[in-house]
Every structure is written in structure tokens, then in C-alpha cells.
Amino acid sequence: MDYQIVIPSFKRSELLIKGTLSTLKRHEVDLERVTVWTASDAETKTYESALSKAGVSVKVVQGLPGLCRQRVLISKHYPKGTPILSLDDDVFSLHTIDKNKRLKPFEGCLSRLVEKGFSLCEKTGAQLWGINPVMNGFFMDHTISIGLRYICGIFFGSFAGDPVWTGEDRKHLSSGEDFENTLRSFKRYKGVIRFDGVCVKTKYFAPGGIEAELGGRDKRASDHEQQLRRIASEHPKLSKIYRKADGTPNIKLRPITHQKLKWS
Question: Which of 128, 150, 132 is nearest to 141 (CA)?
Fold first, then answer.
């Protein structure tokens, strides 16, 4: 399957090399599929220099500032229908679970996982697939859920030109885009696909990225809460706001299951 891999990144060239690119190399993924998307000409030069010094050959393309605007541009950039695997820049490793639901390194073929995700989209009519957003075996299982599940932006598959991203009805570009994209895709295509038994190790709130673009952690938190409340109010039957143990606001989606497939 001729899929593309895109990695939006901002002020994280070293993290990108140590994180996602190292993970892709470890899983023997062809780096010719990979394009790193930057936010400015200066950033492009910084990334090209860092990659060259590290001896890593990856295409770098200048896009737009703002992660959500970047994703819209990426979806418009490739020929319509192109399968696109989108990754954050800080994916340090992939994990799955054993029969006792204990975490263990994912040692399967990453390309086969990706191809399975896109193949299931073609069979079911879904246009969005992803993996478990939590690195906790208790919340994982050897299944693939088809219905409504949260698809985290750290690792997901979609198709270029999808109106979920590019449609004129897309009125908001915000830090709550993962929830927005999940809900928009579910409503449009009646389902999304999630591998319940795969997760990634990452560094949430690492320097750079969204925080740097939004002016720091406090500004990010304030913006994020506003956007989450807006999204929940626009999809009241499918989502609601709650607070984590540390007081951080988040959205809980109503779990809807059309089908459960076994997977290991």
C-alpha cells in the first residue's frame, strides 16, 4: 500500500530525531515515505541542519504555524484519497499487551498495522483510524473497535482531501482538534476505527510544540479548556466535559460500538 507518513513539528528538531524518527527506523519503516512539516522558513532550515548532522535523510516541507492549520494544509497537499499516517514528533516507542494485559514492546510489523488500519477503513466506509490514547494495560484489549472512540492525534490514519479537515463547514481550528476530528469523522462516516491493544510512549507537554505556539503552558491550558467546552456544547449527545484527578479539564466521548474485531 502506498501510504505517506507526515510529522508536523515545531521547535523540536532534536526530539524528532530521538523520538519518532528513531522509532520508525527501529521498525524498519522506509523513511522515503516520511515528510516533516515545519511552520516557517527559519524552522525548515533548523530542521534540515539537525537532520543532516544526525545523518538522517528525510524530506522537510514548510507549512503553516498552528497544528490544526498544518493538518488542513497537509490534507490538501496530497492527491485526494492518499492514505496518510500522521505522527507526533515525540513517539519514543510502541507498546501492546500480553494475555494478562501487561504492557510489552510492540514487536509486530508497523507497516502491516498501518495497512490494516487503512484496509479496514476501505471495508467499513470509515475514514479515520487510530490507536489507544492511554499507556495502561487495564484500559487496553486485543480488539479493534469500530464505532465511536477517541482518536488521538499522536498516531492516526486518514485520507487526503477528507472534508472532515478541508470542508467549508470546518469553522474552528483549535487545540481541541483531536476531539473535533473524531466527532466530525464519526458523524460523517458513521464510525471511526481504533486498535485497542496498541499505544505509544510519549512526552506530553514537552518543550516546544503546541505550548510554544500558544505562548506557554498557562495560555495553552486556558485556550484548551475553552475549546473543549465549545466542542462538548456542540456535540452534547456524544460528549461531555469532566475533570481529571489533577483538575485538568477533558472530554469524555460516549462509547458507541458497531463492531468488535479480534486482533493481536
Answer: 132
Give per-residue pLDDT as tens, 189-235: 999 999 999 999 986 555 555 444 545 556 668 888 999 999 999 99
Which residues, 6+ apart, have CB-to-CB distance to 230 below 8 Å? 172, 174, 176
Quote the number of domains for the chain.
1
What is the DSSP pairing of strand 93-97 with strand 249-253? unpaired
Residue 5: which of 91, 66, 106 has the closest Cα?
Answer: 91
| Residues forming a β-bridge with 143 | 262
What is the domain extent for residue 106?
Answer: 4-262
| CATH code, domain with 49 | 3.90.550.10
Closest CA to 110 of 160, 178, 157: 157
Closest CA to 255 of 245, 240, 234: 240
CB within 8 Å of 205: residues ≥ 6 apart? 211, 217
Q: Which residue has the higher pLDDT, 38 or 222?
A: 38
pTM metric for this prediction: 0.92
The single-letter code of the amino acid at 232 is A
